[in-house]
Each structure stands twice: as structure tokens, then as C-alpha cells.
Amino acid sequence: MKIYRLTNIIHSIIFLLFFANSQFLDAQISGPTISVDLKDATFRKFVEEVYTQTNVTISFKEEWVEHIKVNITGSNLGLNSALTQVLEDSGIKFFQDQSNNIVLFTGKEIVEQLPDYSIYKTGKISNSDTSSDGSKLTDTEKKYQEGKKVTQLELVTVGNSTTSTGDKRHIIRGRITEEETGNPILGATVFIKELGMGAATDNDGYFNLAVKQGKYLVVANSLSMAEKKFYLEVNSSGSISIPLKKELHNIMEVKVVADRHDNVTGMQMGYTRVTTKNIKEIPAVLGEKDLIKVAQLLPGVQSAGEGASGLNVRGGTADQNLFYINKVPVYNTSHLFGFFTSFSSDIINDFSLYKSNIPAKYGGRVSSVFDITTRKGNKKEFFGKGGISPVTSHIAVEGPIVKENTSFVLSYRGTYSDWILSRLDDVNLRNSNASFYDLSGSVNSEINDNNLVKFFAYNSYDQFSLSTTDDYNYSNTGSSIAWKHIFSPRLNGDFALVYSKYDFGHNNKSNLTEAYRQVYQLEHTELKSDFIYLNAQNHRISFGESAIFYNLNRGTISPFGEESTRIPIDLGIEKGIEGAVYVSDEFSISPRLTALAGIRYSMYTLTGPAKINKYFPNSPIDKNNIEDTLSFNANEIVKMYSGPEPRIALNYSIGTNQSVKASYNRIRQYIFMLSNTIAISPTDQWKLSDYYIKPPVTDQVSLGYYHDVPDWGIVTSTEVYGKWTKNVVEYKDGVDFISDIPTEMLLLQGNQKAYGFEFLFKKNTGKFTGWLSYCYSRSLVDVSSDIPTEQINYGKAYPSNFDRPHSVNFVSTLRSNRRLSLSTNFVYSTGRPITYPVAIYYAENQEILHFSERNKYRIPDYFRVDVSINLEGNLNRRKWIHSYWMLNVYNLTGRKNAYSVYFEAVNGLTEAYKLSVFGQPIITLSWNFKFGNYASE
Amino acid sequence: MLVNRAKKYLKGFIRPGKYILYVFFASIVFAACIEKFDPNLSDYDNLLVIQGSIIKNDSLQTVEISRSSPMKDPQIIPVTGCYVVAEDKLGNEFVYRESNKSGEYYVHIPEEYMNYNSEFRLHVVTSDKKRYVSDYDAILESSPIDSIYFEESSYQSSSEYFPNGLQFFADLKAPDENTKNYRWLLQETYEYHSPYTIGAIYAKHLDSIFSPYAAAENFPEVKIPAPLDTLTKCWVISNVKGLYSASTQNLMTNQKKKIPLNYIDETNPKLNIRYSLLVKQYALTESSYEYWNRNKVESSESGGLYQTQPSQSKSNFRNTEDPDEVVLGYFYASSYTEKRIFYDGPFHVPSYSFYHCRPDTFDVLFHDRDFVKLFDIDENPMKVLWATADDVCFNCTLYLGTNVKPEYW
User: Fold this and answer.
1) What sign results for the dihedral spanned by CA atoms A618, A620, A626, A630?
2) What three-state secondary structure class fits A336?
3) Where are the domains of chain B?
4) CA–CA separation, A184 vs A492, rounded Å?
5) With respect to CATH, is domain A273-443+451-791+798-936 assigned 2.40.170.20?
6) Are B83 and B124 within 8 A, CB to CB?
7) What residue ranges do the domains of chain A occupy?
8) Which residues of A are less than 8 Å from B28 in CB distance?
9) Mean pLDDT of chain B
10) Which CATH number does A154-249 carry?
């Protein structure tokens, strides 16, 4: 309901004068006309009618018109007279501006024409014509005069207007940048009011529109940027540049969706974009700003437990999510086993989360894609920021290398948690240590208007030694080089070469004889190109390809220490190629109906060398049933899998601010994680699909209803989905991956069914912002087989570990003024499923528990309240350093939320124990600073 | 307090070396906490449990048949009236008899049938005519125990923490051709003393104090041991709870060092005087090892998210007519070797085991007993100050053990 543009009347308010002028209404008779037949209708209905027929917006306050019953019938009624009739006896007056938009008001009348400036001269209001010399205007008077001017919208003309091009569509290629830094703004939107169509910018700030010749009112929007409106006159194809200004007073703004048109008019479903800036105030564990943790507050995103690494998106396992940071896939996203995310939020600009209707350009993980983009680096001046919290300190700097053209950004975060350990009086803990860091940098260069080159490198490292028994270390290393080339206004392409490596090492020293060192490494090399082509009929066609070369060294287990006699194991190398081509087309079927039809075709090949056991047919896969061994030479094809992945979506708009969308997706996944633990553990390993292990395939359908109220900054979405995954990988009871048993003997494959309902209500503007979400979701797995040893849970379906049907999140920020804000989270979810013992028996005097069917019970429900207070230093623009303090209280009520429930026999009596990770409020104070221009964040 | 508990908890991770350390970090900084919890386990699977073994070294083989009990009321629910037969691969059958202990069945299998690599299985027919049969399991030859020893160390499980105590270990040094899978059953013996020797007897009805022997002569109801200190030294022999197993399947040789056995914390009075551990090393087949090791792993899971799904240690019994019936328990065959080790206490400071033996001076205590045992608490040999205490403080046989000295002591 865009009609209620209260914000628009703000500058009109100064037109309010203090005496009546009943004359001007009569002057407006020759306005637009309407045909209506309303009986006892609400005023709002009338307003909608007016808008539909005349495009005239009427601004008013809801409470003024609540009681008005509209009874009006007739055709070609003058809008003014109709409105006068409607408002008769209501005491409400109205005013129509130059663009025919109408503002209602009560009380004092409005004059449309300002009298001369002199009216304030004596400090008294007067209507006298006595004018004085304009050169002696006071400041107040100047401002007053300024206000008198009608806002002049800039006119941007593309092409020569002399020739008519009729119905032919022209391609307008545009770029939206920050006026101050020259950096491109991604996810910004342009919207053509007249056509009800728009586009969003890509990662480099570009967008394309296909429009017929004409003059349009264009609105460009981006998060934290001042909205920009201008007229665009299109006569031929061409390009435009739209610089947006920072909206300074909105520094504290929290918006989760970048663009208010996206929610309703975009094709996205199950999509959320979160920017680092917008999560600044959201309370976090230890005061560490963390996008991934914020993602868990969104509907449909869950985790197995507090602080656990890995996310479960719409009932999928944690390895079904693909994390891209500037196109570099990150295979382990956690620091300290899940307490923090392995990239510093200093360098992150935003992330987009796709839960359904995943664009055809993405593939390879069946549940979701987290596409993280980093900051581009200020092209005009140097700027830095950093912070200190009890656990980490972090810093980032950015600036130009070649002014206006090439910029860099560098960030580092490191921990100093060791001091905490070393102060403990316990020997075991004092001998433990933990550390991590992450380091990333990027260089962006705009070679010219048509070529953009981006380089990015990333490294994260974790090291953890626990007493004398275990050492762990793992690291992510990656880099990408991307080139964007604009072939023509209609066609642009992105080319990228990506490399990512994940290393893991573990020393187990718990028994000298058995001590071992385990290492493994996964290398991912990817070549990809993505094109966007906008044809004249406004078909937006994306196409491209990608080829991933996996080099998975499943690693070795070797004796550690002189006394160890561990048998060395070499799990061998797996090489796989995952290729994909895709094409998708977004087009309008009718003005209200937009469709997205896409298809991705993915192909996976596992190549040799390999030795594969052949088992007797129709018998369980175990070592007693090996019939033969197949040998494959290097580069010989061991196994191939391939298949189409349709991506289809429809968007039907109901009015301007409501839409209904539906989508169907299929995705295949060729790499998964070997994990037999409840949450992802650091020792879990990646594994490629192989001769026996088929790639998981997911089909997802979703249906959603979206409704925005832009003027109140409200965005809502309601979605239902159903997801069917086959070939999900589950693990036989009690298997051990630290062995040379072929994985097919350890694994079973089954089906996963997930369905749910998600509701999100967000308020993006005003003093009070935030969101409320509710999600109902189920996730069930069944692994059945005719052979009892190849079943899990006796072949019956069971809830997955993260099946938490109800979850409610309320996240809010209240800004009392520009320096102080108060944020709160309320988080509730059903407890995760758990397997409890249902009987106890005795074998040779030992108590042994007999467990129920898998995940038949639940641990107690989870509830948590967090609060944070942000205090900004003074906002003086010229200060060289700006800082803010953040006081964070995590788990304010100190509720001992169950993390798990387990059973232990103490003195022969089996007791249940509840473990809570954060059993009391966690208070942290952190200090963050930025230097350089305040506004540049 | 919370922090201490957290640390206590954390250390639970260290010992088993499992992947639960995750909580480690959080815990130190912010006090993770563990508390008892009632999950309201009202569901109950009432299942048949058959637990039996054929051990080459033993002359009597036993089978225990019971039903599983509810979590809230753990107990052994014996099943009587079953027909139990052991069968070897040659078709020899050995029929069990019910013993005095309800639910227990026994048979003597002559030694000539119990050779290494002989395979046995068990048939059970319950009184309601349900038939169960186990898989075959083979008697494997155990290997000599290389050494048993102990070290001072701390101990933690997820809910217990002891700063110091004795940790016992076994070293396995088996010939490569022997089995790689072992299980240890432990029997402990320790000596303890009642703190007081009877010095006199107070006869209430006469309000007089008698010497012990005089009292014994005069009053038939007064029983005085001879010599007087025979009731102060006692020995307890008991099986150690806990599952101890190890395998050398992953190792190049059939040898493994420092296999952890039981732990006794410093406050345990078992270590006060003398402690002895008899370790029996059972050779297991791979499938039997799997069963016992599974139970061991399950019983030491401590609640982190990095623990695995609880999984059943699968029985090798099945109902011959109804394969879907879940049966619990296991049948295995084995042989063992054994070794005994002694520890002479006290462990640092002796811990006082008879906390309730605080002396009561005579005049403040008027027992409801006719005859009150007295002892002299005055350290000055020239003086006498009579006091009394509970009977158990004079008679160790009233506590846990017997005063019959074991032959190996």
C-alpha cells in the first residue's frame, strides 16, 4: 500500500499556514477523473480506487479517516469534487500538489502559494503585502524560501529524442555507486514507477533494464543510502550512472532486506540478505559480531545446539550449505569449533542466503547457499576500523591504490584466549591452549567502464591443544580472481578462477601405543563464467558454466610419537570433476505475472586411480561379501553421475505491495561430510560421491505470500515448503572413520523429508526496528532396507537431530537517540530430538542401557533473552577516530538451556544429567573504533 | 562453584579423548554447568535379556536370564523356568540347570569339550515356549598379561572429578597369532580395620564394667572374639564395576601399553591399608569385542554434541520364530589369564572410613542395649577413659567384608 506516503508529506508540512484559504480548492477542478461505485466503503478502499484509476496518491493519517464511510457513485467524477464529497462533514481538508498527489490534513488550512518572505519579519504572522528588500534575508528566511521551491527532479536523458522508436525496447545499463567513495553498491534497486518494474544491482553495482521509449520516474534505493528519484528519458539503449548519497542519520538503521522491492517484486523466495552494518547492535556471544549467528535468528535456519558449528537450513544437514566468500567456497566456517565464524565481520559487506528458489547459477549443495561478499575498499580515501573484545581483537584497513580506480581492503582478527587458560589453576587446562586467526584481503580495480578486476585472498587458522591428549589444527585458504566484462549494454559476463583449500590435522595422544596423527586436505579449484543477457522483450537471461576440480586427499593416519605402533593408513586421494551449465530466463508473462524458468545440468565424474571392492549382488556390503576388486588407472573414469536441475518460479503481484510466489527447485550435491556425531565435529571429513555413494538430490517446492507496507518500513513474508531429498548419507551405528574400512561399509543412504511454514515480519525503519519470525519445520529421515544391518532405527522414519518444530525469534533495536541504542533478542525453539534409554538391564553385573527408537524424545525447550547496549562516541564528523562501546548480555535470564541430556552411572546408579553451555548470563564489553571518515562505513 | 563444576566437567573430555572439547572453551570462560535432570523416563521396553558365557578356565558355566527393568526402577527381574542348552559345533549338547540364584542357570562342561577354537552357541526356551538361539562364538586363547601397574593421577568423568588417586593400567603383550581383542574383568580385595578393640563391657542391668572375657563368661549373650582383635581386621573381595576392553586391531603388533583399568580416588578408604587387584584378561572374538566395546563407549558418553548417536550393542540372540523381537544380552566364549597386583597403603593421608565411629564417652551415652562395648580413649597408658561407639566400630564383619584372611594376603 504505497499510497500512504506519510514521509512525503514531511516537507509539505512547512506549507501549513495558520490561516484559511478556501479559494485554492476551486482552482483544481480540472484534475483527473474517476469512476466509482462505493457504498459504505472504507476511506482506504476509496484511496485505492483513486490510485488504481489515476495514479494519484493520497497521504493521510489512519486515525483521521477510520470513521469515514464512503458512499459515492458516478463516472468521470472530478477527483477533487469526489474527494470533497467524501470528506464532507469530516472536518478533513486536502491539498493537491503539482504532481496531483493529495495530502489530507486537519485543522488549519494550507496555502499552495507562499506569500512573500516578509511575513515573519516582525515575528508575527501577517498577511500583509508589505515586502522588503530580498538581499537582507535572514537565515530563517532563506530556509523558508528554499522550502518554497518545488523539489526539482533531475532529468537524465539517454539517446536522442528526435526519432520515435515505437514499441522497441531499449537496454538501459546502469551502475549505482556511493557518491562519496565511488564504490559500487550491490543489491541496490532501481524501480520504474510507471512500469511497476525494477532491477537490482549485481555484486559490482550494475543493473540492466529493458524499457520502451518514454519518460519515466525512477527511484533508486539502497540500504543506508538516501533514496534518489529522477526522471529518465529513454530514446535508445545506453548507460547511466547513479551515485547515491549516504543517509547519515541512518547509520544505526537495521534493515535485513536490502531493498524493499525485493521482497514483493523480486523472484526470490526463501531469500534473505544481511549486511554487517545492520547486525551491529544485535547481541552476540562474547560481543563478537557474527553474520552466521545472526542467520540463525532467521526463520528456517537452525543449529543442533548453542555454539555448535554448522547450520541446518530448512531441515537439511549442515553439509548441505554452501558458503561462498567472494566466490571462494569455505569448507569449515567455524572458529573454536563453532563459537565464532571463520571470517571477520570487518571485511564482510553482506551475505545473501538462498533457502529456496536457488538461482540456477548456484548448485552443489542441496539446502542453501550463503553468498558472502566482502567490502570493496574505499576508492577515495583511507579508512580503518577495529575493535577489542575479551576474546579477540580485529582490525581492517582500506583505501585507494590508484585513486578512483583501484582500492584494497585488508582485515585481520586474532584471539588471545590463551591468557584465560593460563590463569586457571587446573594443570590440564593450563597446559591447553587455543588460538585462531583469520586474514583476508581484496583488491578491486576498475580498469575502465567495461572491465572490472577483483582479487581476493583469505586464510583462517585454528589451533587447539587439549592438555596432553589432543591437538587439532585446521585452516581454510582460498583466493579468487574475477573479471567482469561488459560486452554491450545487453550482455555482461563474469569470469572467475577460484581456489580453495581446507587442511585438517589431529594428533591423538591419549594412548601412547595408539597415538596417531591424522591429516587430510581438500582442494577445490573452480573455473566459472556467468553471463547476463537482457533481450529486447525484457527477458533477463542468465547463463553460464562452472567446472570444479576436487582434489581430496583423504589423508593418512600415522603413528605419533616413538612408542606408537599404530598401523599407518593411507585413505588415498579422490579426484572428482563437477561441471555444470545453466541457463535461466526471467520474463514477464503479463504485467502482474513474472516467471523464472531455469535449468542447470550438472555432471560429476570421479576419476582414478582407485581400487573398488565389488560385492556379491543382493548381499550386505561388508567385508565378508567382497567378490572382487576393480582397479582404475589414473584419470580413468570410476563413476559418473549427472542430471538436470530445474529451477522454476512464478511471481504474481497483487497490487503494488503484495505478491504470491511459487517455485520448484532440484539440486544435486556431489560432496558431503562424513559425520556420525550429533553436531558437526572438527574431526568430520569431507568425502566425494563415489562408486557406491550416490549424490544426494533434493526437490523443493515452495509457495509464499509477500506483503510490504513501505511507508511503515514493514516487510512480511509467509512461505510454506516441502523438500524431498534422496540419497542422504547416514551412518551405521558406532562406526569409526579413523580406519581403513571402505566408506561404503560405514554408510547407508536414505531419504529425508522436510516441510515447514515460515513467517517473517520485519520493520526496517523508525526508532524501533527488528523482526519477528515464526517457523514450523519438520525434518525426518528414513533409512530402510530389506537387510536388517542396512537399516537405521529398524527401518522406521525418525526425526533428524535438528528437527525443532517450533521456533520464534524476536530481534529488535530501539534507538533512543543517534548515540544510544538498546537491542534485544528473544529466542525460543522446541528442544532438539534425543534418544533416551527406555530400559536398563544387567550383563555380568554391569548396568547397560537400552535406548529408544532414534530421536524419539526431546530435550527441554530452548529459550534465551539477550540484550545489548550500544553507545556511540560523539558524532562530530571531523573527529579522526570514532568509537563505540557495546555492552552485551547474552542469556540475560541465565536460563540453563539444555544442550544435551546424557546418562551416567555413578556408584552403580544411572542418573540423567543436563548439560548447559551458557548456564548464566554472559556479560561482555567491547570497544570498536573506526578512523578516517566517519561516514565511510 | 560454577566454574569449578565447569572445569570438572571439561576434564571429562580429556580422558576419553572424544570430540566433545568444543564446550571446553565456553566452559572456562562462562561456566557451563551440569546438573541432575529428570527427563521423566516413563516409557519402558520390557525385553528378554540373556547373558551367558562359556569360559574355558571355569568349571561351571552360567547363563543369566532376566527381563529389562524400567529406568525409574532399575533391578534385575529374573526369568525362571527356562530350558537352556549349550551346543558346540560337533553337536554336543550341555543342558543347564537352574541354580539357587533366581534367573541363573549353570552347567559343568567337561574340559575335553572346551578346546581353543571350539565354538559354542546357546539355545534358550522360555517357559512360554519361545525359542531363542545365539550365534556361535569361539573360545580363543588369551595371552599372558604383560604387566599391571598403577600411577597417581586425577580422574574425571562428566559428572565426577577427583584431583588425585590411583589409576591402574594393564600392558598387553600378546603373540601376534593370538587374538587382538581383549576384555578385562577385575576383582579387588582390600583390607580394612574396625577402629576399636573391645576394652571392656558395660552391663547396664548391673551398672558395672567387666573385662571382655569376664563379660563373656558371665553373660551368655555377650560374644567376645578370641583373640580380641580378630574382629578388627577384615577383607572385602568384590568385582569391580566398569567395562574395560582394548583391541590391537589398529596396531602393528599385538601389544598395547597403558590400557586404563579402574581408578580409586585418594579419599577412598580402600587404599588405607592394602589393596589388591586381580586382573583377568579374556580373549574375545571380534564380534564379542564389538559388543563389549560398544557398551563401554556408550557408558562413557558424556553429553556433548560431538558424541555419536546412542547405538545399541546388538545382541547375538534371536527369537527363532520372530526375528523382529528385540532381545538383549549376549553370549560369548572365552578363556582368560590372570595376574594379581598389590598396593600397600596408605595413599598419602589415610582416609577415615568409619566416620560414624566418633567415640561417645560413657557417661553421656546410655544405650538401649544391655551390654555396651567400651574402649579406652585415653592415650595415657596409666589412665583409663571409657568410651563407646556403634557395634560396627568394634566388629568389621558387620561392615562389608569378612575376617577370613584371603590365602594370597
Assistant:
1) positive
2) helix
3) 1-37, 197-231+354-398
4) 16
5) yes
6) yes
7) 6-113, 154-249, 273-443+451-791+798-936
8) 420-421, 424, 429
9) 82
10) 2.60.40.1120
Q: Which of A364, A312, A361, A318 is nearest to A667 (CA)?
A: A364
pTM for the whole structure: 0.77
Contacts of A145 (CB under 8 A, 6+ apart): A117, A137
pLDDT number for residue A547: 96
Among candidates A307, A563, A854 on the partner chain, residue whose Cβ is nearest the Cβ of B257: A563
* β B331-334/B48-55 pair status: parallel
Reported as a single tens digit per residue, the pLDDT across A919-930 is 788 888 888 888
Sign of CA dihedral B296, B302, B304, B305: positive
Residue A122's pLDDT band, with cuts at 50, 70 and 90, is very low
- Write down the ipTM of this complex: 0.85
Among A520, A531, A518, A432, smallest CA distance to A491 is for A531
Mean pLDDT to the nearest integer, B381-402: 79
**A50 grid coordinates:** 483513486
For A179, list phi and psi in degrees, rounded to 5. -60, -40
Considering chain B, what percentage of its residues have pLDDT values greater than 90? 44
Tell whether domain A6-113 is in CATH 1.20.140.10.
no
Pairing of strands A102-106, A58-59: parallel
Task: For residue B309, give the C-alpha cell.
Answer: 548417536
CA distance linking residue B232 with residue A197, whole number of Å: 98
Which tens digits make up the pLDDT trace of A908-920?
677 888 888 777 8
**Amino acid identity for residue A62 in this structure:** E
CB contact under 8 A, A846 and B295: yes
Whether A154-249 and A6-113 are alike in CATH topology: the answer is: no
Tally the C-alpha atoms within 13 A of residue A898's C-alpha that lie toward its C-beta. 22
Contact B310, A851 (CB under 8 A): yes
Using a CB-CB distance cutoff of 8 angstroms, which residues of chain A are in contact with residue B154?
428
H or E element at residue B14? helix B2-14
Q: Tens of pLDDT along B21-39?
A: 334 444 444 456 778 888 8
Top mean-pLDDT range of A134-143, A412-421, A608-617: A608-617
Query: Would the CB atoms of B36 and A417 count as touching at under 8 Å?
Result: no
CB < 8 Å from A in window 140-159 of B: 154, 157-159
Dist CA A742 CA A293 (whole Å):
36
User: Which residues of B are less than 8 Å from A676 in CB distance?
Assistant: 308-309
